[in-house]
Fold this protein.
Amino acid sequence: MTTLTATERTPPAAPSRPAYRVTGRRVLASEWEKLWSLRSTWITLGLGLLFLVAFGLIAAGRYQSTYGSPHLDHDFATSTAVSLSLFGTNFAQLALGVLGVLVTAGEYSTGMIRSSLAAVPRRLPVLWSKAAVFGLVALAVALVGVFVAFFFGSHIVSGTPAAIGFSHAGVVRSLLGAALYLGLVGVIGTALGSLLRSVAGGISVLVAALMLVPGLASLLPSSWRDDVTRFLPSNAGESMFALTHDSTSLSPGAGLLVFLGWTALALAGAAYRLLRSDV
Amino acid sequence: MIDARQLTKRYGEKTAVDSLDFTVRPGTVTGFLGPNGAGKSTTMRMIVGLDAPTGGSVTVNGRRYAQHRAPLQEVGALLEAKSVHPGRSAYRHLKALALTHGIPQRRVVEVIEIAGLGSVARKRAGAFSLGMGQRLGIAAALLGDPQTVMLDEPVNGLDPEGVLWIRNLLTSLAAEGRTVFVSSHLMSEVALVADHLIVVGRGRLLADTTVRDLVRAAGGDTVQVATQDPARLRDVLAGPGVDVTGRIGSEELQVTGLTAREIGLKAAEHGIALFELSSRQVSLERAFMDLTRDAVEYHGSTTGTEAAESLGRTA
């Protein structure tokens, strides 16, 4: 009896082993699982969505209550339903960008990266999958956010000078541009997190690139300031979703191309460091 | 099967691993010994491609780790205890790793049971004790049903029951024909499970040997004998490979190369009375200390305090 169980428990080692294999799709599935199995993902995505919708509606409500009166804020003077309902983009980009940094840099700060790269020692599939999975999730959240914000925002400001509807030229393009911008900010976040391998470092560079550098641009000599500033990530990104464009800004298409360029640059840096450095 | 050839890792001026040559064979437990900072963890990280060698190479089952189609099926590694995101549950951590290889869910459940994590699998890994974290790392190492299992200091933080569990696990894995490579800075721990030993110090190979040979090289097993007629006993015991020492005029002799049993039988055969007959086994710990101390002395640049420190850490 005992010998019988003993022989059953030690099967011949070589044959009948399952044929496992790492594939691109499987790495994507793994990154999808990793993303949704952390509470921080749900919280931060929720915040991003909340910022987009709530601040857009607050801006629309504030405009609606003060338009035509002498109390109208200067900032609101040239507002449209699009610009009002996209008011939350600035804050949502922080939430989505920071979560992007956490997706990659969080693996380094916790040591998870050793497990990840031991499973996928070719390494690059991990980076591409993280960027793709999180970029698409951020895009989806942003799409929901901007369309909901505009749907209700445009209702709030109907009957005011800012009122425009979905059918107005450029509105849908603007909203799609804003969502695409936020999705790409998420990708840049993942790239920066992977490049710097530090949550604090990644967030600092992200905030600097998107929010502080444009302020510094005013220190440049005015003769060539516009030539530089419109190619900055923040300005190029803004031209992706602005309804109107003047001579100092890029066209939406050009803005998208430039912003894609910045994204590719960040990803290339991340890929280089991932392949070259020990973990 | 792990095969290291002239494996070298330098960090700036410091050489962490220095031209290591060794082979870890299937079917046995191979102990990887050395004081802290000897380069054990660095070597293990190079085996699974987390660190790139500065020179030389290391292959697993004939190929570099990264060239395998299903790396987790070749080598299951427990590196540092913290290779886990603390916010993720044990189950979903393992599931995410399994997904990369198409390893089925039932295998995830299986390794959770093997590691004894069934009751905490849905809890956040950050809330785990050191021992639980170690068990989770071992569950991850076994996930791909790997040919080679490599564990870095697996008994760290485990309670006595856990230590026993690891010992049994290692020997049963080796009995199934797998390659088992386990590092430790505690000779006493490794000696209980390992047949083969690779000893390193300061990144250099100090010994590639078996437990028995190491003991023999360190002075072997000495038998203490006290007898009425030491001079005659010396003559009786004399032979090739046998060494008898003792102070002149003393009744006590130290014999190497013969077992206590053999000495007792020979003495009885010749009618020599014995008062004492006892084996004095050279402790493995001592043999290991001697080896690593030599390594410290060999690198003459060390100051006394540093040497004392590394010895202190060894102990």
Summary: DSSP finds twelve helices and no strands in chain A.
